[in-house]
Specification:
The protein starts with a strand and ends with a helix. The strands form 2 sheets. Strands 1, 3, 4, 5, 7, 8 and 11 form a 7-stranded antiparallel sheet that branches. The chain is α+β, with helices and mostly antiparallel strands and 281 residues long. Helix 3 crosses helix 4 and helix 5 crosses helix 6.
Length: 281
């Protein structure tokens, strides 16, 4: 199980009993929030899924929320705090950031229900109150809000400008379903540092095995990408099978190092929309 580490809890003072105070023993509460996407109990999952489906919502993450009370080195699992509601704030996992209308579902002893939830878009947090601890789920509705694939230069597009290698990586990354803008990616190229605007894009494409740079250590992010290089990136990005073609489509690619990538892009129909944009203009 993956721990959701960025959490905050309020209202624990209500759980301190008179006997705790009279015994003068140190009391410590321990809140554990863990992802259980692969291990949630089937009955709880069925209840949660059904409630989300009835409300036309998607499951973003299944959670196990456990509250432990520690006194005299003795740990007691708190399952129900009855009328004492605890306020919990959790950070939305990066893989589901960008959707709208987040909600929290709690399943406890066979009953699934929504809990009033406050979504802070600036902090990417969800805050809710609960008095029962068991299986939960973060749900969302709507489609993911993607950022623009092309952002331009301070209000200008520069239509006659050339495309740099870094800019190309940014475009490919932004159209990728599994690229996460909020995640920090790390590149092995020595000329791509973490302060570079294109670091995450280049590192993402590098991690996919799509690019290998000008050399083992150099990517040359400010250099212009050639048509041949673009064809290679596109064919590898799309996973197009590379085949030996006896007759080349173009009369100047027969002996070129990228001829198989170029032909792959020409023959693969689903890539032609972007291929035509880059090659035939």
């Amino acid at each position: 199980m993956e721990a959701i580490t960025e959490t905050e809890i309020k209202g624990l003072g209500l759980l301190v009993t008179p006997s705790d105070i009279s015994s003068n023993t140190p009391i410590k509460f321990d809140l554990q929030v863990q992802s259980i996407d692969d291990s949630i109990k089937v009955p709880a999952k069925v209840k949660i899924d059904k409630l989300a489906e009835n409300n036309h919502e998607q499951i973003g993450k299944y959670l196990d929320i456990t509250l432990n009370k520690n006194t005299n080195n003795k740990k007691v699992v708190v399952e129900n705090t009855f009328n004492n509601y605890i306020t919990i704030t959790i950070k939305i996992p990066v893989e589901i950031i960008g959707y709208g209308e987040y909600k929290i579902i709690r399943e406890h002893k066979g009953k699934a229900e929504y809990l009033p939830t406050k979504y802070d878009q600036n902090l990417n947090t969800l805050t809710f109150k609960t008095n029962k601890f068991s299986e939960y789920a973060i749900t969302y509705s709507g489609s993911k809000a993607y950022k623009p694939y092309i952002t331009g230069y301070n209000g200008t597009f520069q239509p006659d400008g050339k495309l740099t290698r870094a800019q190309a990586m940014a475009m490919f990354s932004r159209i990728s379903e599994d690229f996460i803008e909020e995640k920090d990616y790390k590149s092995n190229f020595t000329d791509v540092n973490e302060g570079s605007w294109a670091n995450d894009y280049i590192a993402y494409m590098e991690g996919k095995g799509i690019i290998n740079g000008k050399s083992r250590d150099i990517f040359d992010q400010t250099g212009y990408i050639t048509r041949a290089e673009f064809a290679k990136v596109l064919s590898l990005y799309r996973g197009i099978p590379l085949k030996e073609v006896e007759k080349q489509t173009f009369n100047d690619t027969q002996e070129h190092w990228a001829s198989k990538y170029i032909e792959a892009c020409v023959l693969e129909k689903t890539s032609q929309w972007i291929w035509r944009w880059h090659i035939q203009t």
